[in-house]
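The passage that follows is intended for readers who have already worked through the single-chain material. We present the inputs for a multi-component assembly, then the predicted structure in tokenized form, and finally a short commentary. You are encouraged to pause after the input and sketch how you expect the pieces to fit together before reading on.
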Amino acid sequence: MPTLLLWGRERHHHLFTLCGVPGPLPFRSIRFRTAMTGRARVHARGRRRDTPPSEPAQPEAVRGRPMPPVPRTDPPLSFADLVRRGTAAAQQPRQIQPRLQSLTGVRHVAEAGPPAGAEATSRPSGSSLHGILQARMLEQLPFPSPGNLPDPRIEPGSPALAEELQQASGSQGSLLRKRRDVGRDFQDFVVNTRQNLVHVRESTKGTEGSPVMLLSNHVRLKSHSQRHLYKYNVIYTPDIEDGSKREALLSELEKLLGNRCIYDGNSLLLPHSLGETKKEVVSKLKNEPVKITFELSRELQTTSPDCLRYYNILFRRMLQKMDLDQIGRNYYNKNKKTEFNEYRLEIWPGYVTSILPYETGLTLCADVSHKLLRMETAYDLISHTREKARGEDAKEKILRKLVGSSVLTKYNNRTYRVDDIIWEMSPSSTFTKSDGSEISFVDYYKERYGTVVTTLNQPLLITKGKWKKSRQDTPHQPIMLVPELCHLTGLTDDMRKDSRMMGDLSTHTRMDPDRRQHKLLTFMDSLRKNNAVQKELRDWNLELEEGFLSLSGRTLQDVRIRQGRRVFDNHKADWSRNTREVPLLRAVSLDHWLIVYTKGNYETALTLQQNLQRVTPRMGITVRNAKLLEAADTVQSYIRTLEKHASQKTQMVLCLLPTDNKEIYDGIKRYLCINYPIPSQCVLKRTLDRPKTPVTIATKIALQMNCKLGGALWKVDIGLQNAMFIGIDCFHDIERRRKSVAGFVASIDPDLTRWFSECIIQQSGQELVKGLTTCLYTALKLWCEQNSSPPHSVIVYRDGVGDGQLQALIDQEVKQMETYLENAYRGQKVRLTFIVVKKRINTRFFIEKDGGRLNNPSPGTVIDLKVTRTEWYDFFIVSQSVREGTGTVTPTHYNVIHDTLYLSPDAVQGLTYRLCHMYYNFSGIIRVPAPCHYAHKLAYLVGQSLHQQPHGSLSKSLFYL
Amino acid sequence: VEEDNMECNSVVDGNVEEVPSKKVIKFNPPLYKQRYQFVKNLVEQHQPKKVADLGCGDVCLLAILKYQKCIEELVGVDINEGRLKWNGSRLSPCVGDHLDPRELDLAITLYHGSVLEKDCRLLGFDLAACIELIEHFDSEDLAKFPEVVFGYMSPAMIVISTPNSEFNSLFPCAVFRDSDHKFEWSRMQFQTWALDVASRYNYSVEFTGVGEPPTGAEDVGYCTQIGVFRKKAEAAEMAVLEHHGEHVYEVVYTTSYPSLQQINYRRRVVIYLVYREVSRLRRKYQVSLRQDELEAEFIASGNQTGKFTSDLPVPVLTDDDKAMEMAPQPFCIEDKFYVPLQRIIAYPRLGHLCGNVEKLREFLGDMIELNCDGSAVKVDLNDCSDF
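Having made your guess, compare it with the prediction:
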């Protein structure tokens, strides 16, 4: 049986060592978010060939804590810079083009590694399609929002997918030149946030609601052994950078190590001791002697969280034994692929797995995943975009389509994110190989892989390698790729717009609970039947329990919606019918407003106005006649029209857009949010043309406009007096590497009908928000203006942070707010509850119906045991509603990391669920609390379209809906 | 840096501080890479279909050879089972191999076993490589070796490399290059042995090597000496493939690659290429329509001089493109766009994959719509499913 266990991956490197970087590269120490992936550990080992091998090891870090960042000098020049500017300009770093500057941009987030795979990628649940369509119907953005709501039908699209790919494999081949953490003791640690929460020390479990038995997608991983495992750090002298060589050296040491050990690239887990705390061995690598030192790091219990990383590596190895192929982070089954010849793509089914410690002990969480692979190459895309585009915008179009997307190189098994295109280079350009010789790309591929590059007239793609939004950055050298050899992966926006194709694909990827569970059971069964897998497990005294973990959840009571004098239940999680029959909670009449339409659409505009006037009286809104204005379909023309006709009195501008054009949408929004702040509503003509639904659509538009004007639709009894609710979310423009935008939204009335919003624009990729104090100050000031006294408490819902950032979150954001709140009002402390919201999780829950069929749990189901963690005050809520047979709901995970309000589990769970009813753009329950989603919408609008702070006068309206 | 130390392999608890790192002679590229390159060149030159690496170790050579288009069967044999298991997955096809399959089938198998044992699965090979192998044999094993490899396996070509002990004088200490080496031969010793073996088993042999000696010491010869053995014609004729026989080796790893020989892969590639070609032609057609419109506008607006041109570099016409000029042109009837199969088949790659129009039609099956007499691909002119 195998000697050493490794994470498996094709390692046919094609590392271009690119020369021309002046001076040694500065670097920072990095804390990796590795946990389950030994892979990351391998990147962690930098490949600094220019570093003397005798470089001393970094001092042993404080165990389990991130190393303090080493101050860095100027950002280095990337190869691309040099290429672009010509080597002569190498001494003038200021000339770097903005895009590339951002490529090498400095990021400052110090971060700790999350526990094993906790922050896993989201799987398409294929659910709540109708809900999303409803929610999105009005503001048809050209680019679907990767928002809180799951993408309805398929594999997460370019941003999400790209991120996933990146996360997984982006950098394996890349020339990451990071300092090696030689012999450093990596420890996966989970921030114990619960220890400071005195009120939940005993229990984090609630009692309210009616109990319901649920089935999860976790399988218990049992260990029978009481014996210890031994963890050794492995140090090579001279240092070996190539991960496969490091492993190969260990493979020679079977006599010493035995045939059971798990190696993560830096350290080794052994079931037996080597006898000494420090063991040195000399081995040979291609006739070069290498000293290998094994240093005992610690003895571990088989169930210790420290073992998790190794178990995850072990598990990856087992998946490989089952003939699954690793693509990116997960494993896929080529034998069960589905080909879509018509679309030149295929879908490989696969699995997302992670082993994590929960209250019940170690469990294996498994979910179904699909990988979309395309026959088309990046060159196909370049050439057809070029052919279709007229004139000079071709390059821009190609850039827009390609930059940010993930490509899979056909000669090795790597995925890269495209960061830029170098038009000045071609496959006949040369680069310097690691041995110092110059070779052209054409010759290199011919020589190395026998691959012939047929088109010489193509630019090169440039990839910066790993870029993770939440990770602090290190400079690394870009890699150049030949478009012809890069397969496109994932869905593009254009593909998403093709409803026929999406329909075809979704029938394969969308899974209702029954089908999903069936797939998972088949998977578990094949694991159990595979002898090699079983032997591995036995070798480590591990056993996968039969059947999925069942647990009990509680379904909370339906939430009552109050709209004026009417009260109704959230029947089937959708109260859109009820809404339009009754006067709204706070209707704002529309007296002065404009409708801008384009040539030939006067009729449509008029009909829309009539329809609005028809549906609004019942809601209590008075809609006067609008000024109908015709404009040409260009940004300039829209702005000219608005400049001419909009006045101080104008309450609202409705733009009837003939096409789904991002530039125009952005242009209008920029003008009306920044230059001349008026709430605006864009409506796609296509939406209005749909037969049979004009009344429904007019209703939706009326509701949305009412919200933007400062009206309120309904309210719910939140159950907490005098509390301000805050939502924070960040938007990262991964594709364009623009600055990141943090959206901050705070309720400024006790009924949660008025919201203050502000944006913080920060460094590209920075997740943690600085400057929250200012936001908080303004929000509290507005609160006090509205209400006589300051709020008793502030409850923050924070979206978009991984488990690995919890400590940093506590140290930065929580601290900022807590410090401010302590001193804000003399003598009266405003209490603070800080809740981290996580949407992208792999945990699923099913409910067993009569006859054994599985179903989605109903909205309001809370799970706070067994699959929650002992170190946290956390729980899951299913707040999504899905039509039967369309998909599986994804629960949302909540983690209370700070709470001086001492909310009981019941209180915080109920509160959170009720907040999911307060999003005004959708008459139903959404996946996250309303403030979170408002913050998301705001950050998205600013990040995608405005790129600037919106005008302050809009800050009290929901203009971003 | 190569061959510059006399350290023993895997000396457990050796005095590690004393690891010599004196660099006497450097080879660039490293010598082991030169050896692999030598075999690779040999493969490129002789285009063998079946290649075996005897004593394949960490499968490095196989990993290089798997990119060779001519090879259809690749076998590695080694006595170190652990290393084979460890490294086997390096040889597995990757996703790219599925998306863009190779022309010929390729099966790779790793056997755990000794080169000194006969296994009928090693019969009928075109090339067997024994890179740095024989010096690990003691005299008894060395005596058995020719009988098995030359006599039994009897591949058309055998390449044997071994250290040249004369070169050792350039190294600091005069010991064997590896602790497991049982001997290191001078050129004379190796050639004597090789000539004897060759004549016994009816092979011819040529001597060469890799690792040029430094200037001033040319007389020591290559650092690694290589003998390339070729079976003589009459012997080749006599060779009877006896595929029945014992299976002694244990299969440690086996994989096979997707290829265009497999009908499903071939069909997929054909469809992809047809789609690509058809949409390219359609785009060209659309652009030309637009160009006409624009020109018409120019003329209408009284602008006689300005001709609308795109400032993008015009793709250079290749010979293939010129050949395509001769093929039947695509045409348009109402809102449908047609590309004659004759034209598609004229596209060299598709011509190669399909052979003739009938075959092409068969491949397209019901995946792509044809016109009523089945002579052209029919698509919507304005359907823009170019992603």
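Commentary: Chain B has twelve helices and twelve strands. The longest strand of chain B covers residues 203-210. How closely did your sketch match?
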